[in-house]
Amino acid sequence: MSYFAAAVVREKGGWTAAELNLRGAADVDEVAERLRDVAPDADLSLLFVEADDTYLVILRLDEGEDLRVFGSDSAYAEESRLGSLLVGDLKTSVTGLDDTEEVRPAATSGGDDNEQPAVDPEADPVGEADLLTDLGIPAQRLLALCAHEGMMPADVTAEICQVLGCVDDVEELREV
């Protein structure tokens, strides 16, 4: 299974991005260590792992500590070794939603033509969907992006990075 892993780190000078090689990682803690090594003094480090245009995993470290993880679908753990080590230990339901939030976006007004079903209605997001809330992407928005028809993991990453202000840095990594 092919993957793209982009580390996005925020230091005093702003956001920077670097591609991260996850080959040979033994567990999620080793992946977190590799993320820390990108910028050891970063106040915030994010890792976007996109796999086979199907799965997205986001890891977050605040000042190099307190690893938080979100995965767009628990099935990734069953389909690859990397998926297993990133999301295999996560609970099968997302956290970070309060009782008033729904997991899937509501259809827009109008008839059936405007409804946009989830890419995979069987998708089972796992981990902490609220890990980007303080950055302007609440849990509901992240889940809606992941469930939006036609949105691939690269599109979700681009949307998030647009909000953060580092989309150009991540897109440059794709072009290399």
Topology (elements, then pairings):
Blueprint: E1 3-11, E2 14-19, H1 28-38, E3 44-51, E4 55-62, E5 65-71, H2 75-79, H3 81-87, E6 94-95, E7 126-128, H4 139-147, H5 153-164, H6 167-175
Parallel strand pairs: 6-7
Antiparallel strand pairs: 1-2, 1-3, 3-4, 4-5, 5-7
Helix pairs in contact: 5-6
Report on the structure:
By secondary structure, this protein is an alpha+beta fold. The chain is 30% helix and 24% strand. It has helices at 28-38, 75-79, 81-87, 139-147, 153-164, 167-175; strands at 3-11, 14-19, 44-51, 55-62, 65-71, 94-95, 126-128. A hairpin with a 2-residue loop joins strand 1 (3-11) and strand 2. Helix 5 (153-164) packs across helix 6 (167-175).
Output the helix-strand order.
Answer: EEHEEEHHEEHHH
Helix content: 25-40%
Provide the structure class.
alpha+beta
Low-confidence stretches: 99-119
Spatial strand arrangement across the major sheet? 2-1-3-4-5-7-6
In short:
With 176 residues, this protein is an alpha+beta fold.
Properties at a glance:
176 residues; alpha+beta; seven-stranded mixed β-sheet; 7 strands; 24% strand
